[in-house]
Amino acid sequence: MCPAQELRDREAQNRLHHFEMLPGTEKDRRPKGDPSRAVKEYSRPAAGKDSTKPSDLRPPPVLLKTVNYLINDIAAAPSLYPWTEVYTFVFDRLRAVKQDMIIQRMSGLDCVVILERTVRFLIYASYRLCGEPLRLYDPRINDTHLQEYLSWLLDCYMTKSGPHPNQEEFQSLSLLYNLGSARAMQHTMQLPLRLRSTPNIKLALVINQAFLERNPVRLLRSAQKLNFLQTCALHRHLMTCRQDLLLIYSHGYSSRNCRFPLDRLAKLLFLDASLTAQLCRSYGVEVNKDNQVVFSKGAFTEPGQGTLHCKLYHSIASEKQRDLTVKNILQSCVETNKK
User: Region Disordered: what ranges (predicted)?
Assistant: First the structure.
């Protein structure tokens, strides 16, 4: 999975990652590399550098083996290290895999499998690492790469002969991740009717329509039918959706004598009562001592950047995870969870 010369160079320069060290040598002054665990690291193309050196390129079967190792043995395995460190290692090595794929103009079923596994990993990471400090996880960089992988994967579905048994799963993930995107919607509507009529894509279309119509109640109710990975793809839109709900209700129920039950609002937002009250106050919506919400269109204000922590409001996704292991999630998550 790593060119021999690169392994020797990184060994000499003491640039081996924990996950690549030969067991028993980790505490040595200069740890040794384990050829069975070392993975080619990403190297930015530089002027005058020959990036197509044949001995440094891994053929498609080796690239697939590498991705399987990164997902199954690193990302999905229990680790003594924080998952941010696991993510950083896997993300970098997947970039190197992508680089080799592009140079070789890789296509075919191996290409599709690699892209599918990578997309699952990045979508899960976008949920699990949400709210982490920027020095540990940058959501914009993750999003940029995820969009590139998704675009490449969907293009493979359109241009390469199948079968593609996971196409329904990833078409729906793409739409849920890109709610409101005209491009994502157009791509979905151009799919064959047979594919558009499948349960996952139909549900994604319903949720996208609710998002476009600014109907947060319908969107949140429909989101309960999603499986865990689909909810991970959707989760970045949930704060906007809940904000819309509070804004709409602040206008619709704005009256001096009107009181809205907190527990009923909590059910609409799919949060517990304490988090609902906290969210309301963040937007200037009053919650009185009797656990009643006092909506006022004049009092509604958007909180300052960084004051709301998205991770606190992940209950829709966390309830679906339950007994799922990371390995279950990253291998496949096509079965819809029960409510």
Answer: 1-59
Domain that residue 276 falls in: 239-318
The 10s digit of each residue's pLDDT in 194-207 is 999 999 999 999 99
- In sequence order, which residues have a C-beta less than 8 Å from that of residue 145 and are 6 or more positions away? 91, 95, 122
Which of 160, 212, 145, 166 lies closest to 185, judged by CA? 212
At residue 260, φ and ψ (nearest 5 deg) are: -115, 130
Q: What is the count of structural domains for the chain?
A: 1
What confidence score (pLDDT) does residue 26 get? 81
Q: Report the largest interatomic distance among the alpha carbons of the chain, rounded to a whole angstrom.
A: 76
Q: Indicate whether 293 belongs to any domain.
A: yes
What does the block give as tokens for 116? Answer: 């599918």
What interhelical angle do 139-159 and 109-128 show, nearest 10?
Answer: 150
Question: pTM of this prediction?
Answer: 0.91
Q: Which residues of 4-43 are buried (b: 16+ CB within 10 A; e: fewer)?
A: eebbeebbeeeebbebbbbeeeeeeeebbbbeebbbbbee
**Neighbour order of strands in the sheet with 286-287:** 260-261, 292-294, 286-287
Contacts of 256 (CB under 8 A, 6+ apart): none
